[in-house]
Amino acid sequence: AGFSPRIVVLEYGEHLPYHEDVLVRYATFPVHRLCLSQVHKLPRLSGASVTTILRLGLDMGYHLVHVVTSGTSDLVFVRRDVIEESGFAFPAQDDPAGLCALAAYQSGAHGRGCAVAWQEKRPHE
Asked: Given 15, 43, 50, 56, which residue has the most CB atoms within 10 angstroms?
């Protein structure tokens, strides 16, 4: 069929609650109507949650084995047959809550884990 890499790394929407199935589709925005001095007040409208990307990965034959939250927001997937042939076992494989907790622990005291709630909208100044 087509090319299917053994390992895939994808960025997820770190501002989206990891446990909710959320995908924000790309839409063009009329930038000429946007006052750039007020851009910080707009919500972030892009990306997909950990759960959504996990579902996609499983459907395509990949297992989620690691979540990176320190300095970046990446999901690491390994192709199903590679895991089966190697006999490796990954802690909390395909478990967003467990992988997010592990990522928070690994990033240390100042690290951050996955988002668990929707960000509150900033009040207008």
From this structure: 50
> pLDDT tens, 12-40?
988 888 898 888 766 666 555 555 555 55
pLDDT at 2: 82
Please choose, from the candidates 90, 100, 91, the residue with its C-alpha nearest in 3D space to the C-alpha of residue 53: 100
Q: Is the pLDDT of residue 109 over 70?
A: no
Which of 118, 90, 92, 119 is closest to 104 using CA atoms?
A: 92
**96-106 and 50-59 helices, crossing angle to 10°:** 120
How many angstroms separate the Cα of 48 from the Cα of each of 28, 33, 110, 117? 17, 26, 24, 14
Name the residue among 42, 35, 99, 97 with its Cα closest to residue 67: 99
Please give the residue that has the higher pLDDT: either 106 or 25: 106
Residues 74/81, Cβ–Cβ less than 8 Å: no
